[in-house]
Design goal:
There is one protein chain. This protein has 446 residues and is an alpha/beta fold. It folds into 2 domains: 49-289, Aspartate Aminotransferase, domain 2, CATH 3.40.640; 294-423, Aspartate Aminotransferase, domain 1 (Alpha-Beta Complex), CATH 3.90.1150.10. It has 15 helices and 17 strands. It has helices spanning 4-7, 12-31, 45-51, 73-90, 102-113, 141-144, 164-176, 197-206, 219-223, 261-272, 278-315, 343-352, 383-387, 392-406, 412-423, and strands spanning 34-35, 62-63, 66-67, 94-96, 119-122, 149-152, 155-156, 161-162, 181-187, 210-214, 237-241, 252-256, 319-320, 332-336, 355-356, 358-360, 377-381. The strands form 5 sheets. Strands 4-12-11-10-9-5-6 form a 7-stranded mixed sheet, sandwiched between helices. α11 (278-315) packs across α14 (392-406). It is globular and about 60 Å long. The structure holds pyridoxal-5'-phosphate (PLP). Residues 39, 101-103, 106, 130, 132, 187-189, 214, 216-217, 241, 252 line the site of pyridoxal-5'-phosphate. The site of pyridoxal-5'-phosphate (PLP) has 15 residues, from α5.
C-alpha cells in the first residue's frame, strides 16, 4: 500500500503526470476485470460526454426560473427535461433531481418528514441497512446529522426480509413508551427481495407516520418494472442513487407525490444543498432517457443474471443467502463464506484475481462475534456485467472463476490471466443509444 510519503514529490509536474498514469492504469485494470460491486455500474459514453461539459463549472442554486445566479438559460431547460424524464420513468407526480448523492437524498427526506429527536424505523446494517439510516452512536447520518432516534425493524434472516407481524408489535411497544415513529425508512444496501411496503404503509399512516423507501440500489429495477414500486404501494417518497442499478453519473434523486413537492424543494435547497453539480444533472437526464428506451430489457436481464449466478454458486458449494426464496429477486446476491475464511481475506484474494466484489456483514455476524472489517459474507451485483452484454451462461463461467479462487484455492495470478482473457469479448456498453467506444477507454483531452 503506498503511503503519502512514498507518493510525495517536490516536483509538481511529476505528481501531475503520476495522476494520469494512475488513471490510465485503473482504466486498463477494469477493462480486464470482473466488476461485481453491487453499488457500481458503467455509464454510457453519452453520460460521460455530458459529465465533461461546461455545466460542471457553473452554479444554479434554487429552482429553474427562480435561480440565485445568472447564466442558467440552458441549464434550466436541461433541469426541467431531467425532472420530466424522471417523473415519466417512475410514473410519479414529482421528482427533485438535484440531490448530489443517495445520502443527500435521504437527508432531504429526513428534513421533509421529521424533526430532530423524532423516532425513525430502519434496518440495522447487518440486516442490510445503510449508514445513512444509522444511529448516532455508530456515526449514522439519521442519528448524528438529523438527530433522529433510530429504532430497528425486526428482520427474518430465513426470508431475508422485514418481519411484518413483529414490526407491528415493536411499533406498538414504541408507541406505548412514548416513542411513536415519525418516519418508516424502508430499503437498504442488501436488498434481495421486495419489502412489505404494501403490508405496512397503512399501519404507519394510521399512526401519522410517513413512509419512505431508500431505493439507492434498486431504483433501476423499480424504473424497469422488475422490483416493487414503493410509491404506488403506499410510500410517501422514494430516494435513490443514480449510479447503481440506474446507470447514470454519481448522484441522487427523490421522487414523491405532488402534495409534498413544495416541502421537498425547500428541503433540497436551501436546507441540504447550495449548488447541485450541473454536469451530473445533464448526465442524469441522458440516463433517464436511456432507461425509458432500454430499461425494461436491461433490468429483466439483470435479474436473470443474478439468479443464474446465485444458482451456479450454490451448485459449487457456496452458502448463498435467501435460498428459501430462490436466492434473489434483485441485482444482488450475498453468500456466507465462513467455511472458506473471512470476508476481508476472500475479498483480497478475489481482487488479486481481477474479480472485484465486496465483503459484507451477514444478519447474524455481530452475534457470532464478527465485525465489518472481517465479516462472514461477500456481496455481488451484476448490473455492470449485464451492461457489458453478459447473460446467464457467462454467469456460470463467473461462478466457476470465483470457485477456483475461493473453493479450489488456485493461484490468483493464474485466475487473473483467465479473467482478462474472458473479458476480451465484453467491452461495449449495451442498452444505450450510442456505443462507439470501448466501455473503459481512457479518453485524453490534454
Ligand atoms: C441503501 C443505501 N442508501 C444510501 C446510499 C448512499 O448512496 P450514495 O453513495 O449515492 O450517497 C447507499 C450506498 O451504497 C445505500 O446502499
Amino acid at each position: 500500500m503506498p503511503t503519502s510519503s512514498t507518493l510525495q514529490t517536490k516536483e509538481p509536474k511529476v505528481s501531475y503526470q503520476r495522476v494520469f498514469e494512475l488513471l490510465e492504469a485503473h482504466h486498463k485494470w477494469f477493462q480486464q476485470s470482473l466488476p461485481l460491486i453491487a453499488s457500481e455500474n458503467i455509464p454510457s459514453q453519452a453520460v460521460r460526454e455530458a459529465i465533461l461539459s461546461d455545466f460542471g463549472n457553473r452554479y444554479a442554486e434554487g429552482w429553474p426560473g427562480e435561480r440565485v445566479y445568472a447564466g442558467c438559460k440552458y441549464i434550466d431547460q436541461v433541469e426541467l427535461l431531467c425532472k420530466q424524464l424522471a417523473e415519466e420513468l417512475f410514473r410519479v407526480e414529482f421528482a427533485d433531481v438535484r440531490p448530489v448523492s443517495g445520502v443527500c437524498a435521504n437527508l432531504v427526506a429526513y428534513t421533509t418528514f421529521t424533526n430532530p429527536a423524532d423516532t425513525m424505523m430502519a434496518l440495522p446494517i447487518p440486516a442490510g441497512g445503510h449508514i445513512s439510516m444509522g444511529k448516532k452512536e455508530f456515526g449514522g447520518t439519521a442519528g448524528s446529522v438529523r438527530g433522529l432516534n433510530v429504532e430497528y425493524f425486526p428482520f427474518d434472516t430465513d426470508m431475508m426480509d422485514i418481519d411484518v407481524d413483529a414490526t407491528k408489535k415493536r411499533v406498538e411497544k414504541l408507541v406505548a413508551e412514548g416513542k411513536k415513529p415519525a418516519l418508516a425508512m424502508f430499503g437498504g444496501s442488501v436488498l434481495l427481495f421486495p419489502q412489505p411496503v404494501r403490508e405496512l404503509s397503512d399501519f404507519f399512516h394510521e399512526l401519522d407516520a410517513k413512509v419512505c423507501f431508500d431505493a439507492a440500489h434498486v431504483a433501476g429495477l423499480v424504473a424497469g418494472g422488475k422490483f416493487q414500486d414503493p410509491i404506488h404501494e403506499g410510500a410517501d417518497a422514494m430516494t435513490c442513487s443514480t449510479h447503481k442499478t440506474l446507470p447514470g453519473p454519481q448522484g441522487g434523486l427523490i421522487i414523491s407525490h405532488a402534495r409534498y413537492g413544495e416541502a421537498i424543494k425547500k428541503s433540497t435547497f436551501p436546507s441540504n444543498l447550495s449548488n447541485h453539480h450541473l454536469h451530473h444533472l445533464a448526465g442524469k437526464a441522458v440516463m433517464f432517457a436511456e432507461m425509458m428506451a432500454f430499461g425494461r430489457e436491461y433490468v429483466t436481464q439483470i435479474v436473470r443474471n443474478s439468479k443464474a449466478l446465485a444458482q451456479a454458486m450454490h451448485e459449487r458449494g457456496f452458502k448463498v443467502m435467501g435460498e428459501k426464496r430462490g436466492f434473489t429477486e434483485s441485482h444482488q446476491l450475498v453468500a456466507d463464506i465462513t467455511k472458506y475464511g473471512d470476508g476481508r481475506t476472500i475479498e483480497k484474494r478475489l481482487e488479486n484475481s481481477n474479480i472485484i466484489l465486496n465483503r459484507n456483514l451477514l444478519p447474524y455476524d455481530i452475534k457470532a462475534g464478527r465485525h465489518f472489517e472481517a465479516p462472514g459474507g461477500i456481496r455481488m451485483g451484476v448490473s455492470e456485467l449485464t451492461r457489458l452484454g453478459m447473460s446467464e451462461s457467462e454467469m456460470v463461467d463467473i461462478a466457476e472463476l470465483i470457485a477456483r479462487v475461493v473453493v479450489k484455492r488456485e493461484s490468483p495470478e493464474k485466475v487473473a490471466a483467465d479473467v482478462a482473457e474472458f473479458r476480451k469479448d465484453y467491452n461495449r456498453v449495451k442498452y444505450a443509444f450510442d456505443s462507439t467506444r470501448d466501455a473503459y477507454e481512457y479518453i485524453r483531452l490534454r
